[in-house]
Design a protein that fits this description.
With 311 residues, the protein is of the alpha/beta class. Helix content is 38%, strand content 16%. The chain has a single domain, classed as Spore Coat Polysaccharide Biosynthesis Protein SpsA, Chain A (Alpha-Beta Complex).
């Protein structure tokens, strides 16, 4: 395999359905992404399921299987959080330390799907806007609606500003996990961070430069720091994007990569192809199509020449 040009980060939940979703996702990547890549999976099952051998991969993908840190020695620190922040930080840390020259990392959920080539689309943004660290559905949706981040803003503000004077003093001098996170948010605020800003999870890309800067700053040294924090991982990545002095970019217009929304599809499967998207989310919980119908539709398109659009 040639040197990887990009990486994919994917957290795989413990339900067996997640294995099947991952299998279909891999198949969609194989159909539309011939470029060599690292495929980093964070396995969230209690026991190692050896996903790197259980699943089949096209030759351009090198699988890496890592265990979710909440199942290790730090598990006692896990509380009500879903743990996704620690999972994605684990993937980012591995990529930054083992494949630091990748152009970008495409972070996906198992209910995302690739429906057309994406590498050149994302590469062109990074080449044109070298200070963009995170791209996807930033300030608007594919349908042009403004995104509401007010709930996420409250979450981050609470992490940054403790409720008491003693807690505030502790955050300034302590090296415990919550204090370190609060200080990281403070650094981001000095770089213009607005509480809660991020690109919508499910599918987004971060530049290789973002990971390199995060690694240099020590932000990837301890992914388990986030185990006890109830915060969406896309919001966490938004914090670090600003903390290392980088920017966001919305990339959801026609013929741009991300045709995504939080729940269900942004449009019908046929229209998503017509509009020129490459990465979609979510193929489950759609109001008009079942997950099986959506997956079957796009499987049928993979036999076409990669990049071909439905007429």
């Amino acid at each position: 395999m040639s040197s990887p040009l990009y990486a994919i980060a994917l957290a795989v939940g413990p339900d067996e359905k997640e294995i099947e979703r991952t299998r279909d996702l891999i198949d969609s990547i194989g159909a539309y992404a011939p470029e060599p890549a690292i495929f980093v999976m964070i396995d969230d099952a209690a026991e190692d399921r050896h996903l790197e051998t259980r699943l089949s991969f096209p030759p351009q993908l090198k699988p890496v299987n890592l265990h979710h840190p909440r199942h290790g020695a730090a598990a006692q620190r896990f509380t009500k959080s879903k743990g996704i922040c620690a999972a994605i930080q684990t993937a980012f840390a591995w990529i930054a330390k083992n494949s630091p020259d990748v152009k970008f990392v495409l972070k996906l959920d198992t209910d995302a799907l690739i429906i057309a080539p994406f590498f050149k689309q994302i590469e062109s943004v990074i080449d044109t806007f070298p200070n963009v660290g995170m791209m996807g559905a930033y300030d608007k949706t594919p349908n042009g609606d403004a995104r509401d981040i007010s709930y996420n803003a409250k979450t981050v503000k609470a992490l940054h500003e403790p409720g008491s004077f003693l807690q505030s003093l502790k955050y300034k001098v302590s090296n415990d996990d919550r204090a370190m996170i609060s200080r990281h948010i403070g650094i981001a605020r000095k770089s213009g961070y607005q509480y809660g800003e991020h690109c919508l999870g499910g599918a987004y890309a971060v530049s290789g430069e973002l990971l390199r800067r995060m690694n240099d700053a020590g932000y990837l040294d301890n992914p388990s720091r986030w185990l006890s924090v109830d915060c969406p991982e896309d919001v966490m990545v938004g914090i670090y994007t600003r903390a290392v002095g980088m920017d966001f970019k919305s990339f959801v217009a026609r013929n741009e990569a991300f045709g995504i929304r939080y729940k269900g599809l942004a449009d019908s499967p046929e229209n998503l192809l017509q509009r020129g998207y490459s990465v979609i989310h979510s193929v489950k919980n759609d109001a008009n199509f079942t997950e099986d119908q959506i997956r079957e539709f796009f499987r049928g398109k993979r036999g076409q020449k990669p990049g071909a659009r439905s007429q």
